[in-house]
Each structure stands twice: as C-alpha cells, then as structure tokens.
Amino acid sequence: MPSIRLNKQRWKQVLLIAAAVIAGATLWFTNDITKQVKKQERAKVVAWHKEVVARSEVVANYTEQLFKELQEDERQKADRLADAYRIIDNPPPGMDLTFPGKIIKDNNTVPVLIYNSAGSMIDTNLGEDVKNNASEAYFDSLRDEMSSRFEPIHFEDEGYFLYYDESKRLKELRKAKKELISSFISETVLNSASVPLLFMDSTKTEVVESKEIDETVISDPELLKAKLEEMAEANEPIKINIPGEGVRYVFFEESYVVTTMQYFPVIQLILIAVFLFVAYLVFSSFRRAEQDRVWVGMAKETAHQLGTPLSSLMAWVELLEAEGAESSKLNEMKKDVKRLHTVTDRFSKIGSQPELKPENLSAALEATASYMRPRISKQVSLKLAGVSKPITALFNQSLLSWVLENLLRNSVDAMEGKGSITIVLSEEKNSVLIDVVDDGKGISRSDARNVFAPGFTTKKRGWGLGLSLTKRIIEEYHGGKIALHSTTPGEGTTFRITLRKEAVYG
C-alpha cells in the first residue's frame, strides 16, 4: 500500500511539472510573438510618422511658395493695369497710347473694377454683357468682396480707385490646393496609419478628423482631454503646418491588436488556471463519487451480513422464551437484538433516499435519551428541554437517532466522562431546532473549521467519520442543516440541527 501511494504521489508531481512546463512554454511563445508584432508595428508607425512630416513639409512649402508667387504676379498685373488706366486717363503730350491700351484690352485674367471718388463705377473688364446689364448693387457687392481680399489701388491725383480680385486660374489652383490638402489628410494621415489617431486643430481642443476612436470619447470634452493626455504621454504628437489653415496636431497611440496582445499572456494564464481548476473539480467529484459508491456498497454489504446472524439470534430468543428462560435476562437480550436490528436498518439506508414522515420529535428525543442514559458514564447528566409538548417535524426516526447518538458520544468524550449535556428542542415558523449543548473542553478555532470533514478527529482512536456522517444524514437525506453553533475552549460546545416542519414541493 505505501508503494502504491508513493507512485501516485510521484505521478502527481510529474503531471504538475509537465503542466507547469507547458504553461511556461506557451506563455513564453505568446509573449515573444507579442513583442515581435509590437516591434513591427512600431517600425510601421515610425515610417508613417516620417512620411507625414515629410509630406506635410512638401505640401506646406510648395503650395505656400507657389501661391505667394501667383499672388505677387497678379498684384503686378493689377499695378500695370492701374498705370495703363492712369496714362490713358491723363496721357503725357505726344505719347503713343497703343501699348497702355493693349495692356487694358488684353487683360482677361484679373477681374478689375474702377470707381471714382464719388463711389460710382467707371469701368470694368468683366465683359460688355456684364458691364451693360448688371445692376449697380451687383457691382457694389463685387467691389466689397474684392476689397475684403485685396487693398484697392488709389489714384490720388485723378480720384479713382481700382479694385481687383484673384484670377480664375488662381481660384482654380486654390481649389486644387484644398483638394491636395484634403487628400494629404485623408490618404497620408488617416488611411495610411495603422494606429488609432486624433487630428486636432491648433488649440488641441477641436477634433478635425479621427480614426478608430470611440465617438463617446470625441463627444465628451472631459473624456477627450483625458484621451489626448494619454496619447501625448505615450507618443509625442506630430505637428503639421497646413497652408491657409495653420498648425494641426496628430495624436496617436498603439493599435488595438498590440494593446490586446500585451494582455494575452495574462488572459491565457488565467484560462489555463481555470481549465486546471475545473479539471481538478471534475476529477475530484469523480473520485468522491467513486469513494461514495465504495462506502455505500460496504454499508449495504454490512447490513446484509448482519442480517443472517440477527435472524438466528431472534430465533434463539424465541426458543429461550418458549423454554421458560429468566424473563429479566431475556428482556435484555431482546433489547440488544432490537438494537442490532436498528443498526442493520441504518446501514441499509445508506446510499438511498430514506422515507421522511411527520412525527412527534419530542417523543423521538425522549426515546434516544432513554436509550443513551444507561450507556454513558453515570457522572454525565443528560437532560431534555422543550419536549413538554408534542412538536411535529419531517424526519426518519432511525437515522435521526443515529445522528443524536453520534453527537452525544462526542460530547461525552469532550467532557472526559464527567459533566452535563442538554438537548434543547425549539421551533420557528417553518422549522424546528435541536441544540445539543455540553460543558466540555470546547473546540479550538483551527479545529472548528474542519469538524465535519471526513477523516478529521482529535481522538487517539477513531476514523473521524461520525460528524461527517451526521452532516450527510441531516443535509442530504433530510434537507436540513447541521452546524457548530457555538464553542468556547474550556467552557463547552453547542451543535444545532435544523429540520423542516413540512415537505417542500416544486
């Protein structure tokens, strides 16, 4: 037997080591994959970061310089037009006006309006149809629009004002510039990014564009502020100068995949632990079920084996009674035979659901006390309380008597054969309470947690199955409860049994 236990112990150690090695290898492998993925994504983010900065510089420098040159070119055209109008309006003596007239005639790119000091339009190059058919309000509106963008040229001597606007070509180029910037934002900043990001304005308070960020975060200023601080702490925001719009900032963080994979080893470890725990519970339940079947089989076989000599003893008692044996001795033999019959009946009920009947519990307690008094020390006082009136409960008399006998014997052992035991019966609304109170040595706090555990005992002799059996009889067979109600080392212990008054249906 020791060698078998030793082999089992070694197998458990081998399996435990194997499980630890498998778990460790799995965690190492997944952690390594996580690091590789994180490293690759980080490289992509760095490349994307550089691309955003480089392209933003190209877009900003090229378009800004281009539009400055175009605006300067059109300003010069407007100046030449102003000079041409000035010369034609007041030509020097003998000057050829062909070239100034050609400048005015050939200007079909820069829109021009000429107003006198009285605020009336004098001339325009918008075409004869517009010049002849457009209303004065139209020209005034157009003049205000032009003056809002460009400072008009003032002819102080002549008292004229020349208003001009961007050419059609420049407007088309400006539209193309906006499309270029929009394309830069959508393609370079947003679509090519493999990470969540927020494209913010110069104040870092308004979201221009976003990617893979929850809308609830964007709509809540407090959540948005916290998110920006979190992103800025993880990665420095990218500063971008957008022509015509000013500075913009790109906040970004690691992708959901990388963030999730960081916790994957921990999640995997938890899953492995849960799996091992569930497996342990399953195997433990199988083992307990097998042990229960063994114990039930042993109990039933014991009852079966006792049946034959018990029948023989009953026959011998009847024979002695017929031959006129002394009645006092014969009555004692009858009591012992009846006791053996009770023990056999108890063992036969193990493993099967006993029949519970509503019976007088007070009478059952008195019967058990009467049986136990002659069989315990004369220095132990066994009293009953609360049995003066009949109290009905659902129980099996044979099994309940077994439970009470076990509790009483434990109390006698705790008092070392001298003291007082009181069985107190009381009732509540739907249940009855049986308290077994002794004034023995009590139970320590460390032992109190294990009193109902199979095999636990503080005695030098015994299997430690008495209280475990009582718990099973009360809770599994009767649907009640048994508990260590109170105990004080050196003062005594109280066990409480709770039984139902009526059957529970449904």
Structure description:
The protein is an alpha+beta fold and about 500 residues long. It has a domain at about 355-500: Heat Shock Protein 90. It contains 13 helices and 15 strands. Strands 10-12-13-15-14 form a five-stranded mixed β-sheet. A four-stranded antiparallel β-sheet has the order 2-1-4-3, with helices on both faces.
Task: Briefly summarize what is shown.
The protein has 506 residues and is of the alpha+beta class. It has 13 helices and 15 strands.
Tell me the layout of helices and strands.
Elements: H1 2-89, H2 98-106, E1 112-116, E2 121-124, H3 128-133, H4 136-149, E3 153-155, E4 160-164, H5 168-191, E5 197-200, E6 207-211, H6 215-219, H7 221-234, E7 238-242, E8 246-252, H8 256-322, H9 327-349, E9 357-360, H10 361-372, E10 380-385, E11 392-395, H11 397-414, E12 419-427, E13 431-438, H12 445-448, H13 466-477, E14 481-488, E15 492-500
Parallel strand pairs: 10-12
Antiparallel strand pairs: 1-2, 1-4, 3-4, 5-6, 5-8, 7-8, 9-11, 12-13, 13-15, 14-15
Helix pairs in contact: 1-2, 1-5, 1-8, 8-9, 10-11, 11-13
Summary tags:
four-stranded antiparallel beta sheet, rod-shaped, 506 residues, Heat Shock Protein 90, 13 helices, disordered N terminus, five-stranded mixed beta sheet, single chain, alpha+beta, 15 strands
User: Structural class per helix/strand content?
Assistant: alpha+beta
Regarding quaternary structure, how should these chains be classified? single chain
* Overall helicity: 55-70%
Dominant shape: rod-shaped
Q: How is the biggest beta sheet arranged? A: 5 strands, mixed
CATH architecture group name of the domain at 354-500: 2-Layer Sandwich
What's the CATH H-level homologous superfamily of the domain at 354-500? Answer: Histidine kinase-like ATPase, C-terminal domain
Distance between the termini: 48 Å
Radius of gyration: 52 Å
What is the H/E string? HHEEHHEEHEEHHEEHHEHEEHEEHHEE
Number of strands: 15
Provide the CATH topology of the domain at 354-500: Heat Shock Protein 90
